[in-house]
Give the backbone structure.
Amino acid sequence: MKFKGIIPALVTPVNKDRTINVPALEKLVKDLIEQGADGFYVGGATGEGVVLSADAHRQLTREVIRITDRRVPVIVHVARMNNEEMIELAKYAESCGADAISAIPPIFYKYGNDGIYEYYKELADSVNIPIIIYNNPNTGVTFTQALLDRLFTIKQITGIKWTNYDFSAVMQLKYRHPEINIINGPDEVLLLGLTAGCDSCIGTTYNFVLPLAKKIYNAFLDGDMKTAQSEQMRLACIVDALLWHQGLMASRVILKNQGYDGFEVPHFPMVPFTKEQETELIERLKELGMEF
């Protein structure tokens, strides 16, 4: 299957004991479905999946799949430093009804292309649902065209989440592998990703400005580039405000100020905002047209 549309990379609400705040999660997921979310990406960078305990990760996975109740697809990111744990989480996600598995490449150590290939091959062999590679430069891994050509020979690998600004590479990839599901990552260049050939978009800001992202996506599909460009400029400014205010913690503060409980607790060692920082962020976003 090819994933289409705007897919929020879910922010993960947690309790003080680091378990998942299920009521907060349920409210957010249901609200986003009502707003037109085309799926969910669970436990990725935005969801801080790599710092969740395995138990919390499993809880997050099963609860999102339960809440969505097959209304929209769910992609579960399962990468860990320990391969055995990653595969266990992948199998668990499949057993819960996940539509696809995603994973960043192995990080910290320099494994080389052969090691990266074997890593994804082992993951793909462990499940019977699609695998979405997660290309994020923060991992320190460069996915060359040659490496991607090799990875796409693995039957289960059907797509790639492209959190990268190299859209020339996206166009080359689309030309060489038209069957591959390419999903744009950076929200601030959503429109550029679509223009380069991405099929859909996964992003952080879609947790709290989903209607804006849907407007850009739909305007692009309708050929209304004037509207798409205008709204993309506003989204880029919103992303810039987040990045100036510690990105992930800013996302939690926004959801809190939109009336969602369970997002004021950060994952350790993330530091909570001061009242002054919170006020500065919210006032800046109000200037950009966001409502609270």
Summary: Residues 5-210 form a domain with the TIM Barrel fold (CATH 3.20.20.70). The first strand starts at residue 5 and ends at 8.
